[in-house]
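Z., the sequence and structure:
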Amino acid sequence: MKKKKLLWTGIIAVICIASISVYIVMQQGQAVETSLVEKGEIKQFIEDTATVQSTKKQIVYVEGAGKIDSIKFNVGDTVKKDDILLTMDKKDLELKLQDADSKIKAAQSQLSGTDISNYVNKIEISEAEVDKAKVSYESASRSLNNSKVLYESGAISKQELDNVEDTYKNAEAVLKSSSNQLEEIKKGTPDYVKNGYEAGVEQAVILRNSIMREIDKQQVLSPIDGIVVEKLLEENAIVVPGTTAFLIDNTKNLELEANILSDDIYKVKIGNEVEVSGKAIGNSLLKGKIIKIAPEAKNITSSLGVNQKRVMVTIEINDDTDLLKPGYDLDIKIITEIKSDTLVIPDSSVFDYKGDSCVFAVVDGKTVIRQIKKGIESEKTIEVLGGLEEGERIVLKPDNNTKEGMKVRG
């Protein structure tokens, strides 16, 4: 009997202690984590992925014909402007050049007299100047045509286009001047010299110059500084003029292209700030801005096989692009709206209640459900347009055990 009395006495004591503990907790309030409602900055953004592209990608073509002797660069190699990318067999052309030189010497030997030789030399020098001017003019003309295409696509500025046009006009003027000078020299040459020269030497010189131009075409030069991203030919291949040889990216002029869901594109504006990150650039965070928005949406199939309407945007990088390589896939955040000095609360404090967005405000140590009006939302914060005042305290992470009217501390 004594043992039973002792047991009951112990149970009653435990119950009393527990009751006292609950009473103390109830009096002190449930411990919860709270947050102060304060003003701050909030950024609304769209997250997606973008691919690094070169703004000056160049396709390089073969101008000559024949067998490829040697390819100097492979995919991934860095090249400089005017580096020799490949060479082609030119043995037959070199033999033809020797034959043309022999014909020139034979024609010149048929002419006699110091005066005649002087006229011949003047004509030859003047013709060489004309040929040189023609090469510069043709190069400037091609460069102008390419630059007009790049300018229309937005890849180069108006100033850059004007510089190319100035170079073209200068080359045109030089060609005209040298051609006029050649004509004047020919006009001042005695008829008997002119006739003999045109019958022999001139034809041989024209042939030689033509062969030399063909020899020049037997090697392909890089038009820009960059990286070889595609090599489309192999050694010993037989090619014809116009064959595509290389694709070269200019790694100093890079931009990003992203395809944004059509449901979100209305938020995006030219000039929006963009944050760029990703494994390919380590822990770096690069800054950029939207510089172009495509005028129409396109159907694009996602990696999960879902067909979506998306709009392409182009992003200019404001920071150093040394970390970037063409083809990199990176994460982007397009900042569509920024608000400063506005009420901001953690998103973990907001819950849905009877169809409204609500929080638990702490008033006189007790929880009170407070309906709020939300503004823009960021990754972990929400703007509050109504329902709360600066300096109020709210429950940071309410759960199913949090009830209105609870006494809380924290």
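Residues 83-249 form one domain. Confidence is low (pLDDT under 50) at residues 16-27.

Let me know what you think.
H.
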